[in-house]
Specification:
The protein contains eight helices and 13 strands. By secondary structure, the protein is α/β, with parallel strands linked by helices.
Length: 295
């Protein structure tokens, strides 16, 4: 099948997230400092998969993000990877919206575009709630497959066969009609490394910006279902360690140390002069096949 007869319109939802390698928590001001933003790593994988599908079947890719002005940098990263178009949803009223409202805003933009597949990361690195793709599918009334680890497209039947990861390492194979929303698992693949000419072309592409008015959204008419109360430093988890009773004799304490603190575990402590103890230990190693009698 030639590309002209099987063009795929792909939407990729990309998110700008703080770089966990640079961000710090200041206990004096109870705030985050040294915040630098990057493209959500799983969204980078989603973008790479979209490019592979586009290159195989033809069509176009549109990356969409919702966020403040700095989020345009992450859209630029998508364009430099080889994405065809980018849309930045940016409006002061959209700052600090909850996950359900985020999905609603993204869906309102997506419904204005042609699409065969909508790709989202399984979860974002910062919040990890994994709701965006689910919410978009619900609002647009589309089939949804989560935790996708492989995608096979069949343009002639307008369908896709996808593999999804289950608990315990199991896989599930699902056939879904298109258009559909697929949330990508990080094990699907690795981000692509674009050629220099692709990067340079991405620097020249325009990023379209839309606001609440152009989308026809009034947040006063939308009820928030959640909001961020505060940000606090993660509490350290104390490790459980065995405590040895100092009132016990030396041999009893040694038994507990050998058994890892389990008092009823079978152990053997040798209390003999050094030459006899060494001989018995060597014999124990030989009897259990740990060392050879010829050594």
């Amino acid at each position: 099948m030639d590309k002209q007869s099987s063009n795929m319109n792909i939407i990729v939802c990309a998110k700008s997230v703080p770089d966990s390698g640079t961000i710090r928590y200041d206990i004096r001001t109870n705030s985050l400092v040294n915040i630098q933003h990057i493209l959500n790593p799983i969204d980078e994988i989603s973008t790479s998969e979209a490019i592979k599908i586009r290159d195989k079947y033809g069509g176009s890719i549109t990356a969409i993000t919702l966020g403040p002005s700095h989020a345009a940098e992450q859209l630029r990263s998508c364009l430099k990877m080889g994405v065809d178009n980018a849309i930045h949803i940016c409006d002061p009223s959209f700052d600090n919206v909850d996950v359900q409202t985020t999905a609603y805003i993204l869906a309102k933009q997506i419904e204005k575009l042609p699409y065969d597949i909508i790709l989202c990361g399984n979860e974002s690195m910062d919040e990890g709630n994994g709701f965006a793709g689910i919410g978009i599918a619900e609002i647009l009334d589309l089939p949804l497959v989560t935790s996708v680890t492989r995608i096979d497209i069949f343009p002639d039947t307008h369908s896709a066969t996808v593999h999804r990861r289950l608990r315990g390492g199991d896989r599930e194979i699902i056939e879904t009609p298109c258009p559909a929303v697929l949330t990508i698992d990080s094990v699907l693949g690795k981000p692509i490394y674009p050629r220099l000419r692709t990067i340079l072309a991405g620097l020249k592409k325009d990023i379209a910006t839309v606001d609440a008015k152009s989308l026809g959204i009034d947040l006063n008419n939308i009820d928030k279902v959640s909001e961020i109360g505060e940000i606090t430093q993660q509490k350290p988890r104390l490790k459980k360690t065995a405590s040895i009773d100092t009132s016990l004799s030396a041999s009893e304490r040694m038994k507990l140390i050998i058994s890892g603190g389990v008092s009823d575990k079978s152990t053997k402590v040798i209390v003999k002069p050094a030459p006899e103890s060494a001989s018995e230990i060597v014999q124990f190693l030989i009897n259990n096949g740990i060392v050879s009698s010829n050594t």
